[in-house]
Design a protein that fits this description.
CATH architecture of the largest domain: Alpha-Beta Barrel
Number of helices: 11
Radius of gyration: 23 Å
Helix content: 25-40%
Oligomer: single chain
Number of domains: 2
CATH topology of the largest domain: TIM Barrel
Largest sheet: 9 strands, parallel
Length: about 350
C-alpha cells in the first residue's frame, strides 16, 4: 500500500489544453513541461498533452527524456545551449533553440554540422533576465540571418514579467516595446505566458506558451483554476496512520508549536517535507480528510503532519486525506503557506509515486 501518492488526471490535462486553444484559436500552443512538468511527471504529462504543437523545456536532459519516450513533436530548449557538446546533442535530437545572448550566436556561427536549427530569438522587453536588449536586436538578427547552414525557421519571442497583475500596465509597456522590434521581420511571434493567455488577448500572437494553467492551476492571486474553467490535474493524497487523544493544554509536534485548547483528537498523516510539503505551512492550514476540511496542528516534520480532527466525524487509521486536488485547491494551500502554487507543485519529491489515471 502506498501511503502517499500523487494521482495525475490525464483527462484534466487534455481538457485544459483544449480550454486554452479555445481562448487563442489562431495561435499555436507550446506546452511548457519543464521542472518535471511542474511536478506532474515529465513524460506522462507530455504524452497526455500530445496534441500540443510543441513542448518547452528548460534543460537539455528534459528534452532527451522526451525523445527517449518517443515524443517526436518539436521540443524547444527555453534556455538554449551553452557549449558545443550541447549543440551537437541538440542537433542529434532535433531540438529547437532559444537564442538569448551573444555567446550563443557565436556557438551557432562556429557550428559545422548539417542540421539546420529552428531558432527562437529572444528579446528582453523588461524582464531583465534573458534576451537581447532592443538596441542590440538588429545586430543579433543580422548575425542569425547570416548563419550557414541557414536556420530551418526563425521566430521572435519575449517574456512577460507581470502578466498576472490586475492593472496590466507593465504588460502594456512590454508589448509597446516589443511591437516595433518585431515590425518588418516577417517571422512568427511568441509572447503570451499562462496569465497573459487569460488577461491579455492582444499578446497571443502566433504562439502561446502555457505552463501552470495546463495543470489546472491559476496564475492569479484572486482566482482559482476552476474559476478559469480549468481542471486540477494533480491530487496529492495521503493516509491517516494514527489517531491520538490529546488533553487540553498538551502540545503536539516539534517545538510544541500547537497547543490543544480543549480535549482534542489529532490525526497523524504520512506526509512531510520529505515528500515536498513546505515546512512553512502554519497551524490552521487546510487539509481534507474524508472529504471534510480540518486544520494543520503543529509543524510539518520530515515524514508526518498532525491534523486537528476534533470537529470531524470519527477518523480512523487508513482513511484518506487530500493535501490538494479537486476538493482542496492548491492555490488555497499555497496562500496558507505564504507562497505560490508553482512552489508546492514543483516541490513534490521523488519518493511520492505518480499514478496516472
Amino acid at each position: 500500500m502506498r501511503l502517499i501518492r500523487a494521482r495525475i488526471n490525464g483527462g484534466a490535462l487534455r481538457s485544459n489544453l483544449q480550454r486554452l486553444r479555445g481562448l487563442a484559436p489562431a495561435s499555436k500552443l507550446m506546452a511548457v513541461v519543464k521542472a518535471n512538468a511542474y511536478g506532474h511527471g515529465l513524460v506522462g504529462a507530455a504524452l497526455a498533452l500530445s496534441d500540443a504543437d510543441a513542448f518547452g523545456v528548460a534543460r537539455i536532459d528534459e528534452a532527451i527524456a522526451l525523445r527517449a519516450a518517443g515524443i517526436r513533436k518539436p521540443i524547444v530548449l527555453l534556455e538554449g545551449v551553452f557549449n558545443a557538446a550541447q549543440m551537437a546533442e541538440a542537433a542529434h535530437r532535433q531540438l529547437e533553440l532559444v537564442v538569448h545572448e551573444a555567446a550563443q550566436l557565436s556557438l551557432l556561427e562556429a557550428w559545422r554540422g548539417e542540421h539546420p536549427f529552428t531558432l527562437w530569438l529572444k528579446v528582453d522587453t523588461g524582464m531583465n533576465r534573458l534576451g537581447f536588449r532592443g538596441a542590440d536586436l538588429p545586430a543579433a538578427w543580422q548575425r542569425v540571418t547570416a548563419l550557414r547552414p541557414r536556420p530551418a525557421a526563425l521566430r521572435l519571442m519575449t517574456h512577460l514579467s507581470s502578466a498576472d497583475e490586475p492593472d496590466g500596465s507593465v504588460t502594456r509597456q512590454q508589448l509597446q516595446r516589443f511591437a516595433p522590434l518585431a515590425q518588418g521581420l516577417g517571422v512568427p511571434l511568441s509572447v503570451a505566458n499562462s496569465a497573459a493567455i487569460f488577461a491579455t488577448p492582444e499578446s497571443h500572437c502566433d504562439w502561446i506558451r502555457p505552463g501552470l494553467v495546463l495543470y489546472g492551476v491559476s496564475p492569479f492571486a484572486d482566482r482559482s483554476g476552476t474559476a478559469l474553467g480549468l481542471q486540477p490535474a494533480m491530487t496529492l493524497e495521503t493516509t491517516v496512520i494514527a489517531v491520538r487523544q490529546v488533553a487540553a493544554g498538551e502540545r503536539v509536534g516539534y517545538g510544541g508549536a500547537w497547543r490543544a485548547g480543549r480535549a482534542s483528537r489529532v490525526a497523524i498523516l504520512a506526509a512531510g517535507y520529505g515528500d515536498g510539503l513546505l515546512r512553512s505551512l502554519p497551524n490552521g492550514a487546510p487539509v481534507l480528510i474524508n472529504g471534510q476540511r480540518a486544520p494543520l496542528a503543529g509543524r510539518v516534520s520530515m515524514d508526518m503532519i498532525a491534523v486537528d480532527v476534533t470537529d470531524l466525524p470519527p477518523v480512523k487509521v487508513g482513511d484518506t486525506a487530500e493535501l490538494w486536488g479537486p476538493g482542496l485547491a492548491v492555490e488555497a494551500v499555497a496562500a496558507a503557506a505564504g507562497t505560490i502554487p508553482y512552489e508546492l507543485l514543483c516541490a513534490v519529491s521523488q519518493r511520492v509515486p505518480l499514478e496516472t489515471v
